[in-house]
Amino acid sequence: MDKQSTQKYSATNYLLYLLSKRDYSEQELHRKLKLKEYSAEEIEQAIETAKAHNWLSDERFCQTFIRYRAQQGVGPRRLKQELKMKGVADWLISQCLEVAEAEEGLDWFELAEQIFEKKRPRVWDLKAKQKMWRFMVSRGFYQDHFSHLLNQDYDEDE
User: Where is the RecX second three-helical domain (predicted)?
Assistant: First the structure.
């Protein structure tokens, strides 16, 4: 028996099932369909069908992903990296970040301040300052977003 006769659902049906749960990037769906051992032809046909019906949109995925991860306290640098790993084009990432900042009012400085204040230790010494710097960078914020907080708070508690 060949693979096609052992598969329960068509590639398009499986793709619809996945998209009913959440948005995916095109590359993620391609990878998932490939793991289910659909033929390259079936995969391409399913993805083209999804695009034609507007079920699949990297732009919509990118915007949703940015909104969701920003609410979790993730900064722009890490967002770019995660979206690249999910196969979203660089130009689309930049465009979606600009839209999030301009139209949706996403303020990286404000978000960095909220995250910083949540994690800031009670004892504020040089070691704590270094730890907070590493934490904020690992969260994906640029130094511009939080460096004023490190200096301001460090000077106040001396």
Answer: 57-97
Contact 24, 18 (CB under 8 A): yes
Q: Which of 96, 93, 137, 99 is nearest to 115 (CA)?
A: 137
**Both tokens of residue 56?**
């699949």
pLDDT of 68 over the 80 cut? yes
Question: pLDDT by residue (tens digit) across 5-16?
Answer: 456 788 899 999
The tens digit of pLDDT for each residue in 87-111 reads 999 999 999 999 999 988 899 999 9
Which ranges constitute the DSSP H helices of 24-142?
26-35, 40-52, 58-71, 76-85, 90-102, 108-119, 126-138
Matching residue, tokens 């990878």 = 31
Closest-CA residue to 66 (of 56, 55, 75, 57): 75
Contact in structure between 75 and 141 (CB atoms under 8 Å): yes
Q: Give the global pTM.
A: 0.83
